Amino acid sequence: xxxxxxxxxxxxxxxxxxxxxxxxxxxxxxxxxxxxxxxxxxxxxxxxxxxxxxxxxxxxxxxxxxxxxxxxxxxxxxxxxxxxxxxxxxxxxxxxxxxxxxxxxxxxxxxxxxxxxxxxxxxxxxxxxxxxxxxxxxxxxxxxxxxxxxxxxxxxxxxxxxxxxxxxxxxxxxxxxxxxxxxxxxxxxxxxxxxxxxxxxxxxxxxxxxxxxxxxxxxxxxxxxxxxxxxxxxxxxxxxxxxxxxxxxxxxxxxxxxxxxxxxxxxxxxxxxxxxxxxxxxxxxxxxxxxxxxxxxxxxxxxxxxxxxxxxxxxxxxxxxxxxxxxxxxxxxxxxxxxxxxxxxxxxxxxxxxxxxxxxxxxxxxxxxxxxxxxxxxxxxxxxxxxxxxxxxxxxxxxxxxxxxxxxxxxxxxxxxxxxxxxxxxxxxxxxxxxxxxxxxxxxxxxxxxxxxxxxxxxxxx
Length: 462
Description:
By secondary structure, the protein is mainly beta. The protein contains no helices and 31 strands. It has strands at residues 43-48, 53-58, 65-70, 74-76, 80-84, 89-99, 102-103, 108-114, 143-147, 160-164, 167-172, 182-189, 192-193, 198-207, 211-220, 230-238, 244-252, 256-257, 260-265, 273-284, 321-325, 331-332, 336-340, 343-347, 358-369, 375-383, 387-396, 399-412, 415-424, 431-439, 448-458. A hairpin with a 2-residue loop joins strand 27 (387-396) and strand 28 (399-412).
């Protein structure tokens, strides 16, 4: 059993409970109200850190009932009382005692230490890090809402927001069905960013109703700046009653002098709803020791030969462009190459070992890539050996900066590897001709790589 510390607490307004039936009770005797200190030795509790649960036991005593109180509002009168906390921290559970004459003037306070936050999946970046740019900042010190109906008329009753120990608790009764009809803005956040740096961001969201498309937009907060430039603009799905970490990594910084803005949009959500936003972290990527998991959203994949495969042309080009180089960036000879039955086969030659020193691309595939749509990509890579690093980039043919996807730290196992990334959007805008680039800089000479089964489809979540 865990030992406890306690203090005698002042009386709080709580309901009284009668312990006897009316025909046995002649009236309260205020001189016989129990003193809580007399029952200290009758209370024990233990904490199970594996489940974040504390169990309190009050030894049954004739005529005496415990009243357990959490946060001044939640209470129980059971002799055995169990309480679960999701978040790391210290929590106080009070125990009053009562008999038929009334309830004790004071209470015993039990301090419960919960060691770890419980989360399904990734729990976010370190909120307590000294490098967290939000540490010590009330990100919602200046906030406003604009919730409107399907006809874009704002509701007379707007949402409420409160800050409870760093949890930003939003309640809304109604929200429109479309994007931007449920806006919550945190304005003028005093944080400095720098152009040329990359940042990581995370928060934890909990909702009692499903939020099928919660948008998070982090941008310039200066008045008249039209929310530009933008650090992050992404949609997330939040299931009901399940805390989830919403995050982004390697976000391109911009010069921001103590005037950052967060915009959340709940358009299309179920209502009424209660939402908690907490554990805000924004950190220089180079100072962040935590590596976030890949964000793979479950989708319905079309077949390689389906009309829904907008990237079917990648399976038919039959040729590749190469630019392989040595460590000094001098071009070396092309790798071995062949194509048959939709499979591109590359045999690596000696290269410098760095990224972009083994460029191999399938070029000039006509696809109508739209600016505001999300896409999914998938392909198969079969390798004759384990490869420690390679790159995949899908972008506009004549503008590498207008990328649908880029990642330079992928790894290959020996044998078959399925490469898939979902809910992607063009970084700059629409495009009509695309290329799919692999970079095998660092791949050992002689390694055989087979590329096939290319799919590029409009985002189709399960």
